[in-house]
Specification:
The chain is of the alpha+beta class and 976 residues long. The chain folds into six domains: 230 residues, YVTN repeat-like/Quinoprotein amine dehydrogenase (Methylamine Dehydrogenase, Chain H); 86 residues; 211 residues, YVTN repeat-like/Quinoprotein amine dehydrogenase (Methylamine Dehydrogenase, Chain H); 122 residues, Immunoglobulins (Immunoglobulin-like); 111 residues; 87 residues, Orthogonal Bundle (Arc Repressor Mutant, subunit A), CATH 1.10.10. The protein is built from 13 helices and 65 strands. The strands form 16 sheets. A five-stranded antiparallel β-sheet has the order 1-30-57-56-55, with no helix packed on it. A four-stranded antiparallel β-sheet has the order 2-29-28-27. Strands 3-4-5-6 form a four-stranded antiparallel β-sheet, with no helix packed on it. GO terms for molecular function: DNA binding; phosphorelay sensor kinase activity. Keywords: Coiled coil, Membrane, Phosphoprotein, Transmembrane, Transmembrane helix. This is ABC transporter substrate-binding protein. It comes from Flavobacterium reichenbachii.
Length: 976
């Protein structure tokens, strides 16, 4: 009776203090996303988790505060001493208070996106600074409490109050807005007004190693590390017995959380997560064997979407406890590719590539999973395509034929070349038509078992999809050919009529056609919606009901009615159900099944429903269970975020980042809240963005728009980055928003920035351009003036030139006349010179002739023999000789010759006298004769000497002229 009362109390408390978001299914294992250290690239150990007001996730990692925005992981800041972070809490202003190893403080986000850590240890007295791990950080009223074994530090109004214990503290808990502390010596203490007050019989709690306390009505629920759960009420400690006690005691409780539905999630050190209800019944046990990546749970927190974040000794796991979908798993989890499923005689059967498997469904759904495993059905080891209950028998359709299943074994009923599916012949429940790889086969029930009869003749097509109508016709869909409608003969051993339908008969395509039976009506799934046959024209037409609710754009892969008046469908990649209500009103539910996208085995989509409301989906990722009782809010608000903005030049310069240290940026009202002002040289930008929605983040799509550059939003895509290059100067706003797997669009994130113009397009540049333009205009005007002045001067110069030209022409005429006169004078002079030359030559010739005569006379006189001719008058002869000698000297003639010669030869004799004064008159005469180019024989008579005498004279002259021996005296005289 006591145990019952305690459980009722716990249940009532669970209902009083709900966490309004989180729920958890009992059947199956929730979807789990594991983030290993290889993914987030940081330390393996994580100790705490929190979410800020935007939805950003933060984790207490060994290397610091780790952030996750749904796409990217990063360490955003570290304690001042670089130690591991053990605990965190966030206030209403998104300031994160951090407890670390030997340090505690706060971290705030700066305008450029990065986080800055400020240590508060400096506020402690020196004597209180020696402490270890800060295991808990709690915001309590208007103060922050940092808890370590060595002391409790209460931060209030910029000051810290320190509480110490002689034996150290064990743990701290916040329960019903009250703070409780476990002292190793004093036991359970109540923290009130900065004082630690023992509860009644507080010493009983010392040494219990309490890991979590929850409030119950008028009492407390205590979770101990090794001894299970206890209720403290009316000053009594009583064990609280649960179905998980053995597991909890063996595997040590580390942390716990209470969910909105009253369930309690308990993290252990060695066996993962255990969930119990308010009465102590085991709801879930999620461990490494069922998908958790590590068994040591360090903390548990739920986010705004109702997901459970589990920090582990190695890694982080996200458990989607609010989802109505869960996976049917056991510890072996050996088979994941499921083609079909069926509940029969409280056993759940699944068909796989490796045969048929089963487990005890009643034990599994009631939480008794420790010894519940999928077991192989003996007798089948190939692909099982379909299973179904026909009469009281379970038949399996396998690669090797048709098998009847009884318990954990199967016996071949028909060994044929592959069987796909079976349907009962209308109005003949003892006849079963089986579709095979190569046609149709008939089975008959005899003595409670199905017996193979024969193959139906006249039809050998593969018959994987088969249905019967109320008229007894057989409809078979061949995915690559079309639809066959068959009629059998009366003995059911042959096909009597075959009709074939494809695109020519109204279908939008002959490919990928299916046939289904809904409300006794044959319908067809096509690539463009649901079709049916027009009874009058026999043409295939769109079904109006399904056209209204499913449209005509998607490939209808499956339609299946259930026992709750629902029609399940797989349309395109979406799964859903159409529920019929009164007054022919229909509702379509599709969002709950978005997780099933891309999970089905293509072409083998299967949904199994039960009368109790269980729904099973066979997928490539195992068997998935759906519970309509479990409700999840899908239209929840969330935010898109800009993770970082960087410029390519300089290389990867960060302008904004919540992940790394970024460059300073200008912000504030003066810049209209610009996030950054960027020089033109950095006008190539790279944006990274994400969404703070963590349910299937890989399926989230994004659209973006750079206002000021692009005219409209982009199309949705999976990319989480965008680059822009060569942006012109302008003010821009980068917008981004996300659309999650449930088609909910996020609040948009914006980044305002301005690209400054290049220096040559700045205000100062334009001022300079105006100045330069003014200077240019001034220069042009000045140039025009100078040009006019130059033209004027050129005109004057031209006139002067013309005048000078006229004068020059006159002068030229004058010069011509003068030249003509000079020519006449030259002619006259030349005539005179020629005359004088002739005269000189004549005189010279005459003189030569005369001298020759005189020399001849003198020679004759010399020949007179004075001694032999006494009659000769010697005195007269002497006078004649003297006269001849005088004439030979020719002084009179020479003077006349010299005068004329100097006129003709530019004062040659005078110049020669001046240059060589030592020359005698005879020498001068000889030089004159050489100038006239006379030879030696011609010169001798002129000088009245012999040829020998001329040679001697020439020699003396050479000496006086100082000519070298090789020089020619005649050439010298001629060139002088």
């Amino acid at each position: 009776m006591t145990k019952f009362v305690i459980r009722i109390l716990v249940l009532l408390v669970s209902l009083i203090y709900p966490d309004l978001n989180a729920q958890i299914k009992k059947i199956g294992v929730p979807f789990i996303t594991n983030y290993s250290p290889k993914i987030y690239k940081s330390a393996s150990e994580n100790w705490d988790v929190l979410q800020d007001s935007k939805g950003m996730m933060f984790f207490a990692n060994h290397f610091g505060i780790m952030q996750f925005d749904g796409v990217r992981w990063s360490i955003v800041t570290q304690p001042q001493n670089k130690s591991m972070v053990r605990s965190m809490v966030i206030d209403k202003n998104d300031k994160i208070y951090v407890g670390a190893q030997g340090d505690f403080g706060c971290a705030s986000q700066l305008p450029n996106g990065q986080y800055q850590y400020t240590s508060l240890v400096k506020l402690l007295p020196v004597s209180a600074r020696n402490f270890g791990d800060v295991f808990h950080t709690i915001i309590y009223k208007n103060e922050v409490i940092f808890f370590s074994n060595e002391g409790i530090f209460i931060y209030r109004n910029g000051q810290i109050k320190v509480l110490k214990s002689e034996a150290n503290f064990e743990d701290l808990f916040e329960v019903n807005n009250e703070i409780y502390v476990i002292d190793n010596a004093k036991g359970l203490l109540h923290l009130k007004n900065d004082n630690l007050i023992p509860v009644v019989e507080a010493e009983k709690f010392a040494g219990m190693k309490i890991r979590k306390i929850f409030g119950v009505k008028n009492g407390l629920l205590l979770l101990t590390q090794k001894d299970g759960l206890f209720i403290y009420k009316d000053n009594q400690i009583t064990p609280f017995i649960t179905e998980a006690d053995d597991v909890l005691k063996r595997n040590q409780i580390s942390v716990a959380i209470r969910f909105s539905d009253g369930y309690i999630g308990i993290g252990t050190r060695q066996s993962g997560l255990i969930v119990i209800d308010g009465s102590g019944h085991l709801i879930q046990h999620i461990s490494r064997q069922t998908g958790l990546q590590h068994n040591y749970v360090t903390n548990l927190k739920t986010d705004k979407e109702g997901n459970l974040w589990v920090t582990l000794k190695e890694g982080i796991s996200l458990i989607q406890i609010s989802s109505p979908l869960s996976r049917i798993l056991d510890s072996s989890n050996s088979e994941t590719r499921i083609y079909c499923s069926q509940i029969y005689q409280n056993k759940l059967y699944v068909g796989t590539d490796n045969g048929l498997f089963w487990l005890d469904w009643e034990d599994y759904k009631n939480g008794k999973r420790e010894n519940v495993h999928f077991e192989h059905v003996a007798g089948m080891s190939e692909n099982v395509w379909n299973i179904g209950v026909f009469g009281n028998s379970l038949l399996a359709f396998e690669k090797n034929g048709i098998f009847e299943v009884k318990g954990n074994s199967a016996k071949a009923t028909a060994k044929i070349d592959g069987a796909w599916k079976g349907v009962l012949i209308p109005n003949q429940p003892d006849l079963l038509l089986a579709g095979g790889y190569k046609g149709l086969y008939l089975l008959k029930k005899s003595n409670g078992s199905w017996v193979y009869q024969h193959k139906i003749k006249g039809f050998d097509e593969s018959s994987r999809i088969i249905e019967t109508d109320k008229d007894g016709s057989i409809w078979i869909a061949h995915g690559y050919k079309g639809i066959f409608k068959l009629k059998f003969n009366k003995t059911l051993d042959a096909v009597s009529e075959v009709r074939f339908y494809n695109q020519k008969n109204g279908f939008p395509s002959s490919l990928f056609l299916n046939t289904f039976k809904v409300d006794d009506q044959i319908l067809f799934g096509t690539t463009k919606g649901v079709y049916k046959q027009n009874p009058a024209s026999k043409k295939m037409i769109p079904d109006p009901l399904f056209k209204k609710y499913l449209g005509q754009e998607n490939h209808i892969r499956l339609l299946k009615p259930d026992d709750q008046n629902n029609i399940w469908f797989v349309s395109g990649e979406n799964t859903g159900k159409i529920s019929k209500h009164a007054n022919d009103r229909f509702d379509v539910e599709e969002l709950s099944f978005r997780k099933l996208r891309y999970l089905y085995v293509p072409g083998f989509e299967n949904i199994q429903t039960t009368k109790t409301g269980d729904v099973f989906f066979g997928t490539q990722d195992g068997l998935i269970h759906y519970s309509s009782v479990q409700k999840k809010k899908y239209q929840t608000k969330y935010k898109a975020v800009i993770s970082e903005v960087k410029s390519f030049f300089p290389k990867d310069s960060l302008l904004f980042s919540s992940r790394y240290e970024a460059l300073p940026s200008k912000t504030g009202a003066a810049e209209d809240k610009l996030s950054a002002v960027i020089p033109y040289s950095n006008n190539a930008l790279h944006f990274s963005f994400a969404s703070l929605f963590f349910d299937e983040p890989d399926a989230t799509k994004y659209e973006y728009w750079l206002e000021g550059f692009e005219p409209k939003w982009s199309e949705y895509s999976l990319q989480t980055e965008k680059e822009y290059t060569n942006l012109p100067e302008n003010e821009y706003v980068f917008h981004v928003r996300a659309k999650n797997i449930y088609d909910v669009v996020s609040e948009e994130a914006v980044f305002r920035f301005e690209i400054l113009p290049p220096w040559y397009r700045t205000l100062w540049a334009y001022i300079l351009y105006v100045i330069l333009f003014g200077i240019l205009i001034y220069k042009i005007i000045k140039y025009q003036k100078n040009l006019a002045e130059r033209d004027r001067k050129q005109l004057i110069l031209s006139q002067e030139k013309e005048l000078l030209h006229n004068r020059a022409a006159l002068n030229e005429q004058k010069l011509v006349l003068e030249q003509e006169n000079m020519a006449i004078m030259r002619e006259n002079l030349e005539a005179t010179i020629n005359l004088k030359n002739a005269k000189v030559a004549s005189n010279t010739v005459n003189l030569i002739h005369l001298n020759e005569i005189l020399l001849s006379i003198k020679e004759l006189i010399g020949q007179i023999d004075k001694k032999n001719d006494p009659n000769v008058n010697f005195s007269l002869l002497n006078k004649i000789n003297k006269l001849i000698d005088h004439e030979l000297q020719g002084d009179k003639h020479w003077n006349e010759f010299e005068e004329i010669f100097n006129q003709l030869h530019d004062n040659f004799i005078q110049r020669l006298k001046t240059s060589y004064p030592e020359l005698t008159p005879r020498d001068m005469r000889l030089c004159a004769y050489l100038r006239m180019n006379f030879n030696t024989k011609e010169i001798a008579p002129l000088l009245g000497i012999s040829v020998r005498g001329v040679e001697d004279t020439r020699y003396r002259i050479r000496k006086k002229l100082q000519l070298p021996s090789e020089a020619n005296i005649t050439e010298f005289i001629l060139n002088f």
